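seq/struct pair 1
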Amino acid sequence: MSTTAVPEVAVTAVDEGFWTRNRKIGVVLLALGVLAAVLFGALATSQHARFTLSETEGGAALEINGTVGAILFGLITAATGGALLAGVHKRWFSLLLGAGLVAFVLSFLCWQVSAAPEGRNFMPLVNVVRGTFILALPLIFGALAGVLCERSGVVNVAIEGQLLMGAFSGALFGSMSGSVWVGLVAAAIGGAFISFLLAVFSIRYLVDQVVMGIVLNLLAVGITGFLYERLMQTDAAKYNSAPRFGNWEIPLLSDIPLIGPALFRGNIFLYLGLLLVLVIHLALFRTRWGLRTRSVGEHPTAADTLGVKVLRLRYRNVILAGLVAGVGGASYTLALYSFTKNMIGGKGFIALAALIFGRWSPTGALLAALFFGFADQLATYLGAIGSSIPSQFLAMLPYLATILAVAGLVGKVRAPAADGKPYIKG
């Protein structure tokens, strides 16, 4: 009886195990590749699609016939999907997935750029890369705030409120003082204020952390909206005209083709964001503080047994996360725009998605934020060249990219074991 049951179980396991996540994604890539080759190839024109290595139409450029490029890159996408469907080794998964997605985007761009009106049938890659980083900045700061909190065991759904309070505080105090540095400090304190409330209610009073985060987001919207109407709208010159940080050019590095003008002619927020990714990554995985933080996020009881002050460490890291997110909010009002009601527009939740997509890692969060920033920049570019795609759909691109990335690409991920679980000292 047992000898006949074993083969049946084995066959069932093999059947169920064929459609792995890699093969399912392979099918999706294969379908996308065929769609791109057929549809984008038919819609593209024989006009050359130019990808310039500068900020304008002139200079060096990569050119390809629009129809040929759309079909070629579509076939490459299909080929990567076919390779995944065939069951290549897992170590090739990330490379093939990345190559397939890039090829699909290039096929789409060959259609869009070649079909653009004369004089606009080019994509300035320097502007696209620069715009990607600028639009990703609040996501980078917000995702880093999430890393600091959730690696400590506290769910940070309040990123939206921390960014918003940082943007508002930076605009208000920067305007009143006439100093960008005062505005920057005020923005950090504004974000830390929301984080302090999250820490007190979640750690001290054991309030559900997700519910508390949503409440704090609404609190930030209410406070900033009320003060905006009472102060900023009535006297914008005094309360909503903060000075702006200028761009700082780094000699030699700024002359590197493509990357130099985009990365090394930026403002303080760009350099600070990239620096924070490096510092937090090294601190989290190479220092005693990082070891204690990760242990508190995984097994606080064991950490407490070894002498780690669990609650104190959580308080400190959550407030530090607020400081980081507050600076991210200031990247709006001290570099780009004047403050408006609810100007963050859901970027805090996209930062939370970037945190998950990046697997609770600073470098992973950076790459995820750049992915979402590129989707946002792509929507802006397509609108500028008069794309035939409806503007409403273009506005949806960053959010669609978020849904697809978290639901389809991220796969199975494991949050820190104690994430969201209050610790009660015995």
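seq/struct pair 2
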Amino acid sequence: MRMSVGLHARQSQVQKLAPRMIQSMEILQMHALALQERIEQEMNENPLLEQVTGDPLSPDEGDDEAPSKDARSENEKELVVDNDHDNKDDFERLSNMDSELPSTFDDSFRQSANRMSEEADRRHDMMANAQSRPESLNDFLLHQLAELDIHDDVEQIAERIISTLNASDGGYLRTPIADMLPPGHSKEDLALAEEALQIVQSLEPTGIAARDLSECLILQLDPKLPHFEQLQTLIRFHLNDLAENRLPQIAKKTGFSIEDIQELREDLHLLNPKPGAAFLETYVPNVTPDIILEQDDDGEYRVRLDDDRVPNLFISEYYRKRLQASDCSAEEREFIKQKINGAQWLIDSIEQRRSTLTKVAEAIVEHQKRFLDEGPEAIEPLKMQQIADKVGVHVTTVSRAVDDKWIQTPRGILPLRRFFVGGTQTEDGEDVAWDTIRLKLQELIDKEDKSKPYSDETLVDELRNAGMTVARRTVTKYRKKMGIPSSRKRRDWSLNST
């Protein structure tokens, strides 16, 4: 085999996105609050951007500041959305603006006093509204420990034990006691460590610092319970059998009746297998809808973009006049041109976002009208490509438009992605969404005979009888996702204890 080294010319086509086009896509992907923050940042960095203040419909306000649309040049005019096309001319104009003017310049302009004051007020409000840090599991235990009258050596080991506990792990003690002592420790040191562990385990929440699940549950048992000994027996020796619903085996080994075992299992369900998890810091975001869906008097759905928080922007008239002034230096003129370019691109990108998001939402609502009228069981299969074809944009544009966006509907506030679901076809060729199949699966299991629960194969047959052809592995996958145990675990042994 001969090998050679040389230079070869090859022609290839590579698609590259201009930085401004990337910015436009980023703005489309933002939800309203993120867009508001982005606009505030741009206004801080670009002195040519101004915000319409007061009532925009009032003839006495804003007339001296906001420029008229007719006075703008070709590159500064507002984006006109054409519902019959994909706005290719607008994006081409934006791309030309990006290539004609420089992308970097030394911005030496300082913020005005009013803008600096507004930013300071906004930061103050953010600090005032910030949530205080919740008490951690370790702090909660240390505060209890400090109130106890115990020996210093025991307290130090107890603090060491507490430091190893993690709320995300449920508050279990995963480090051996001996590893918390110095090398060459004595039996007396180990006894102190065991004493320290018992003290930590006596703190709230009950069951904390357990070394395994059995110890955690036993720590939570009250010795005054009428079935304390039986509960201990089940916890120490039969937890796996309980988890697998092997009640006859437990009855055979313990002599307990099936009915007694079921009652004891209900008592065990009241215990907390992860007592430390209550101290997990869970972040629950405030959902603010970007789109409002309302019904008119005729029952027709109307889509309205809820962007009242997004300010209306325009380019400062002062800098427009400065650009035409005779005493404007070449450096100043280049700076103003660059800032006009950035400001106009931002304004056009926001308008393009409004248009795209509105058209995408309208197409989704039109396709999922039955879901909005009748509920989740009537949802239709829908792919993003279908909406992209209907709106006349690329599928990635639809993906960015619906990302992290919420819509307020008569059925509550829902993420836009909720309306996109896969599906299959019935024997009659009708499309059925997977959500509909899951609801039917839940209905079948709720109505089954618990003495003889449906196997996955039987569920396939029952779904087929309902006109839904689904593979067994699909039934198994959705059953597990829905948190439904297997047929053996769903069996109620008290109904056929003989």
